[in-house]
UniProtKB/TrEMBL annotation:
InterPro entries registered for this protein in UniProt: TMTC_DUF1736 (IPR013618)
Lineage: Eukaryota, Metazoa, Porifera, Demospongiae, Heteroscleromorpha
TM segment ranges: 107-132, 144-161, 173-206, 241-260, 326-343, 355-378, 384-402
Source organism: Geodia barretti
DUF1736 domain sequence ranges: 264-335
Protein's name in the database: Protein O-mannosyl-transferase TMTC3
Amino acid sequence: MAVVRMRVETVAAICALVGSLVFLNSLGLQLCFDDTAAVKDNADLRPNVSWFNLLRNDFWGTEISHRDSHKSYRPLTVATFRLNYMLHELEPLGYHLVNVLLHSAVVYLYVLLCGVVFSEVWPALIAGLLFAVHPIHTEAVSGVVGRADVLSCLFFIGSILTYKKSLSTKNSALFMMCTLLLAVCSALSKEIGITVVAMCPIYEVLIHRKMNLRNILRIILGMRRRNKPSIEAENRWLKSLLFRTAVIGSFALTFLYLRLKLNKTPPIFSVSNNPAMKFPTPFRQLHWSYLCVYNVWLLLSPSQLCAEYAMGTIPPVASLSDPRNLLTLATFAGLLSLSCYSASYSHSHHRKIMFGLCLTVLPFLPASNLFFPVGFVIAERVLYIPSMGFCLLVSYGFHLLVSNSKRFSPFFKSVIVFLLLVHGIKTVVRTR
């Protein structure tokens, strides 16, 4: 294919351009929904308020230690809002323009990351285009408050790419510091950004070193059938991996400790924001587990997207005989089986699939309700970062189908083009 001969930077630029074009309609939108509280009514954006207030207050301008605070701490995102306000106050165009430009920048970096993961341009192009036009991103890019997710994603990818650089340069300590700095920036843009500290070692094992869990266990147990120099080299690498992971992990735990210390008190969410909080056990857990499956479905088929999922939009799982429990069980079992299968084999296909799964699941966990309740039922914008892994998996799946089935290759290519067109049209229509 001619596209294979293109540089990944060129493909990234094309995808970034497409990402900006499909969201041009959003430039004419007003400030609405949560934008009112985050921008219009947020005193921290005003020039007469000290910049230090951004470090003391939550995303909505309430002192974060206050009992009524939402506990969303995103000072970097609020700082960008304040810069917007300095330039044009509450004129919506500037806020939406920055969001579109940030989305384009994210798409560009995402394609570069996919180029590293795939070592091929063709699947990176498909992943980049799918990420650029996916309708699930409408809320994140078109809604001004969605900038938190887009900005966090920008630093998220930058952290992984910088970590990659630290593995192949003499200035590894400097690039490691930059990796941690970008991780903090991602977390200070939106909380889920801190999960990038887990993705960095995963990238090193699966993509950079081309290994999996079984390989590492064999190194630890001394079961690798290689000559002595190779074994010694692998042992040195494993020790360095453990050291880097310990450094990153310690840094992340310290950051989380300081971050939670700011809260003083845990967040208090109203039942209207997350009705399942009042459900009895086990129906509360069953309902939240089903919501995870619902999020997967939104990525697979974004045909029934909604601006607000509260107030009974999704009926509660109130019975053990609810057929949705079977769907939840099947989805979790399928993901677990695919993860175990991919983690057990060291073929390139399995490692890339495992990386895509990790990139989908790990950033979503803080918003999943599985470990602690959050202040919403479903928020499409929180899928902005996890959708990177989803798009990676879909594009690689199509790539394997096209590569391994010459007879049906034209059909699969047509399906790809059709999917991208439908998603692009859906996004354009939804941003009007």
